[in-house]
Structures are given as C-alpha cells and as structure tokens.
Amino acid sequence: AVVSGVFLLVLTSFSYHIDIFDRKKDSLRLVLQAKENLYLYKTGKLIELAGTKDGIQYEITTEDMEYKMKKVTSRARSDKDEALLLEYMRK
Q: Which residue positions in the chain have pLDDT lower than 70?
C-alpha cells in the first residue's frame, strides 16, 4: 500500500509538471511570434498586418502619438492564450 501511494504521488506530480511545461511552451511560441512580427514590421518586411501563421493568429496595429512617435502593438493569440508586445517608434 505504501509503494502504491508513493507511485501515485510520483505519477500525479509528473503529470502536473508535464502540463505546466506544455502551457509555458505555448506561451513562448506566442511571444516569439509577436516579437518576430514586430521585427518584420520595423524592417518593412511584414507583408500582412493580420493573419494566421502556424496556427497562431497575429495582428499589428499602429497608433499615432505626440512628438512624431507612433505606438506599434504586436498581438499573437491562440485558443488558450495571448501575447501582446508594444513598442514606440519614430514616424
């Protein structure tokens, strides 16, 4: 009974940590996609400001600000999570 209890505890802990790893991996994919789109936008290589890539929906929005600046927002989302990066750039 003791061995069964220890085995069940180890199995539950292992399953829990695998789930955490999968969630972190998905979040990292979203952040990397948002960062890549922001870089492509800055370099003028981003063709579409919204779309889907590898199952991740992305969108770039801009907003004019004061002092000849603009706010660029890069958003990437999946079914479960969302990543949002913003950067202020000169016009």
A: none
